[in-house]
Design brief:
The longest helix has 23 residues, at about 375-395. α15 runs antiparallel to α16 (about 305-315), α16 crosses α20 (about 375-395) and α17 packs antiparallel against α18 (about 340-360). About 50% of the residues lie in helices and about 10% in strands. It is elongated. The chain is α+β, with helices and mostly antiparallel strands. It has a domain at about 1-120: 2-Layer Sandwich (Beta Polymerase, domain 2), CATH 3.30.460.
Amino acid sequence: MKFYLVGGAVRDNLLGLKEKDRDWVVVGSTYKEMINLGYKPIGKYFPVFLHPITKEEYALARTEKKNGKGYNGFLCNFSKLITLKEDLYRRDLTINAISMDKKGKYFDPFNGISDINNKIIRHVSIHFIEDPLRVLRVARFFSELNKFNFFIHKSTLKLIFYISNSNELLYLTPERIWLETEKVIKNNNIYLYFYVLYKCNALNIIYPELNNLFIKKKFLFYFNIIFNNNFTWKNNVKVNFVFLCLFFYDTFFSNKYLYDKNILINHVFNFCKRLCVPKKFFFFFKKTYKVLRKIYFFDKCNYSKLFLDIYMIYDFNRNYFFVNYFLSLIKKFFFLYFFKNKKVFLFLNKYLINILCIIKNIKYKKILNSNINKINIKNEIYNIRYKKIYNFLKKIS
């Protein structure tokens, strides 16, 4: 029985990046032997285990044979006779088909290290076309590794075109598409991910909501500004998700979306339902969209009401972690030169934290202990908060 570190951990190590996940392949073992050693089985379709102490994933070496459609249409052979090379051969890209033993020695049968040095994203074998998820993975790796100037090899691009023009992408499960999407919007250069899918005829199949954006190119400049390396908030998934949704179907920046709030809300709801997106994302988008419309149509000088409305929409009292999300949104919108009421964003960015502290320090004990009914208590609390904010803004003006 031998253990080898494989996949992204080895690739990231060679690139000088911090390892995200450490995955291991086990050669010369069986399911029963792994159980006896205390490993916890977690694999649904093939034997994958969690280490009893480190909780890192360990998978038995296996080969795969296509026998159906989509990501799960494979027969797996995980005999203890499967070699390390056979296991690496089934992987998608040469840069992901490198292993390292516990002594730090690399095994690189498909020249992945050479491709890393030459900045090439290249498939391992013709079996690449058997898994449609690899179209999304290649696009994601291209966006993530763009800072190192990686490019997709011509032969791999041809295979991506082949998959996109077949019906294989239709068999991808919503959960797998969302998982890739979530990984993408955690990182920089999100724009490049969608650009590759568009060029390979896959965008209209996977993300039809964004296809018009690349065809008409009317708002592509703003999409690029928001989702390029400089203005993407890394790891702020909810903020990036909101901005992604604002570009659905000719974008939020068209007047029809601003004046009829339900159009975009329905588009985003259908997107979330189709890809099984966790409810928290739609929840945050809905609140943020409501706030953005308030800012867009803000034409009076009642900043006290605007601050208080934003506070109540996000319910900052219970969801204080939304504050950082909201401040990130404000900074992004400031870079959209056409957006109305830019001064409001500056004002919110400057004084939001101060106002949240003021609201937090208000004492409500006297009101809560009074005989006022619930509706009047709610109104009284609103009025107290409003006066405190108003007095603060008056003092600084």
